[in-house]
Inverse folding.
């Protein structure tokens, strides 16, 4: 494992961090079919349908944060006939069309810098894209450059004392693990061999 000597960078040098995370997640959902909804995912007690609906809610919350400077704590319930894959795609496109992050976002009774919200959201979107890829059988890794950049912001948005209950304890990656495997391991998932 290599050490980082530079301070974490929240603004990527090439392409937007959130845009690249969304691109990866959208690529992951392409392989999902209606018959896969009951498949288990790397998220311990969730099936693929639950994971897709969670990602839909996360994308909607990020969109609210960017557009309105606040995030509602209660997600909108899914419509009875809502297709989870389509719902993820629609919310991802809305988020891509949103303007630049606000300087400050209200999340419940707390305040968060807009760049930190974007970084946290990019981690959420990319890692759930990985979860979806695993559950669909595609097994696509998070692109190395994206994963490497997300690893630099993880200590800011997933501090050790506040991991639980959102993330499991880190998993030890292989010594020669790629950046994507190190990222998912840091967030409590077991990278595939």
């Amino acid at each position: 494992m290599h050490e980082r000597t530079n301070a974490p960078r929240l603004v990527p040098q090439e392409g937007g961090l959130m845009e690249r995370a969304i691109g990866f997640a959208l690529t992951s959902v392409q392989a999902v079919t209606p018959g896969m909804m009951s498949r288990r995912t790397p998220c311990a007690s969730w099936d693929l349908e639950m994971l897709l609906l969670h990602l839909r809610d996360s994308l909607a919350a990020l969109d609210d944060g960017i557009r309105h400077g606040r995030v509602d704590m209660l997600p909108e319930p899914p419509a009875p006939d809502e297709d989870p894959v389509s719902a993820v795609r629609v919310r991802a496109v809305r988020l891509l069309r949103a303007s630049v992050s606000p300087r400050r976002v209200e999340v419940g009774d707390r305040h968060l810098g807009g760049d930190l919200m974007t970084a946290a959201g990019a981690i959420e979107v990319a890692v759930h894209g990985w979860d979806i890829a695993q559950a669909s059988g595609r097994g696509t890794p998070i692109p190395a450059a994206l994963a490497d950049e997300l690893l630099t912001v993880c200590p800011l948005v997933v501090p050790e004392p506040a991991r639980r209950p959102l993330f499991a304890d880190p998993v030890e990656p292989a010594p020669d693990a790629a950046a994507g495997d190190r990222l998912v391991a840091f967030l409590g998932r077991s990278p595939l061999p």
Notes: The longest strand covers residues 104-107. DSSP finds six helices and three strands in the chain. Confidence is low (pLDDT under 50) at residues 1-14.
